[in-house]
């Protein structure tokens, strides 16, 4: 019976009737488990998931779900908004807005790791979708992960074409830096150095010959740092040093 069921399953699979193919492969495995049929079963199950997911894509329904999500968000009905935006991600899986909008809901629901994950999904689909970076930074900020928040802001600046969102990005970055300063207020220089020495990334930046030259220059001319901030790579490293307390600006 195992072989008979397996043959029927294969026939259904050739007809692209994956549901029946899976049913008969399962029956074959119930009669007598074999690696060959198990492989066919797993492949058919995977193919059906892909087929069903593709068949569900519908731009019109996606837009309806987005509009419903927006309405529920305005009503502060976060769970209903999550449900609507989740529907949008299924109807339009390549549209970053569904994931980014759902992330905004997760932030309201204090589900920050889920918000970060959705922002990553949005960025994966469109690396220039700045709203996703801003929401990811907001989630990290609320979690008090200030270094991560600052890093995300740096990434956002790199992808912000024409600096259209520069003010909003810099404002989020400023808030994170101020929060770090406040958290470390009263820390002695010895405590700062001990903490820095335990951070491999900061140690690596301090050992970089280019950064050493910049820091040496800044000692005699603090304003020179502003010029170096125009270079995205240097800017990111300087921000990390500021965040770590190595460079103290305006304090």
Automatic annotation (TrEMBL):
Cross-referenced SMART domains: STI1 (SM00727), TPR (SM00028)
Gene Ontology molecular functions: Hsp90 protein binding
Source taxon at top rank: Eukaryota
Keywords: Cytoplasm, Repeat, TPR repeat
TPR repeat boundaries on the chain: 2-35, 62-95
Domain (STI1) ranges: 199-238
Source organism per UniProt: Dothidotthia symphoricarpi CBS 119687
Subcellular location: Cytoplasm
Keyword Repeat appears in the UniProt entry: yes
Protein name, UniProt field: TPR-like protein
One GO CC term, this protein: cytoplasm
Family matches, as Pfam families: STI1-HOP_DP, TPR_8
UniProt cross-references to InterPro entries, sorted A to Z: STI1/HOP_DP, STI1_HS-bd, TPR-like_helical_dom_sf, TPR_rpt
TM ranges: none
Keyword flag Repeat: yes
Main localization (coarse): cytoplasm
Sections of the chain in a coiled coil: none
Gene3D superfamilies tied to this protein: 1.10.260.100, Tetratricopeptide repeat domain (1.25.40.10)
């Amino acid at each position: 019976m195992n072989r008979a069921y397996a043959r029927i399953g294969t026939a259904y699979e050739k007809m692209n009737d994956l549901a029946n193919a899976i049913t008969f492969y399962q029956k074959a495995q119930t009669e007598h488990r074999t690696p060959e049929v198990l492989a066919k079963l797993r492949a058919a199950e995977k193919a059906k998931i892909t087929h069903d997911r593709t068949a569900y894509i519908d731009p019109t329904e996606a837009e309806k779900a987005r509009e419903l999500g927006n309405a529920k968000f305005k009503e502060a009905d976060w769970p209903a908004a999550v449900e609507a935006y989740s529907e949008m991600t299924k109807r339009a899986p390549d549209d970053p807005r569904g994931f980014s909008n759902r992330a905004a809901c997760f932030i309201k629901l204090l589900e920050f790791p889920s918000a970060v994950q959705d922002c990553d999904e949005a960025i994966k689909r469109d690396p220039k979708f700045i709203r996703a970076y801003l929401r990811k930074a907001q989630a990290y900020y609320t979690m008090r992960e200030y270094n991560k928040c600052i890093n995300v802001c740096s990434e956002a600046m790199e992808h912000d074409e024409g600096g259209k969102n520069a003010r909003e990005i810099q404002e989020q970055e400023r808030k994170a830096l101020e929060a770090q300063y406040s958290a470390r207020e009263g820390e002695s220089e010895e405590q700062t150095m001990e903490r820095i020495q335990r951070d491999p990334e900061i140690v690596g930046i301090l050992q970089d010959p280019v950064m050493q030259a910049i820091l040496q220059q800044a000692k005699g001319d603090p304003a020179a740092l502003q010029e170096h901030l125009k270079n995205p790579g240097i800017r990111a490293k300087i921000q990390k040093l500021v965040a770590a307390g190595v460079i103290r600006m305006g304090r």
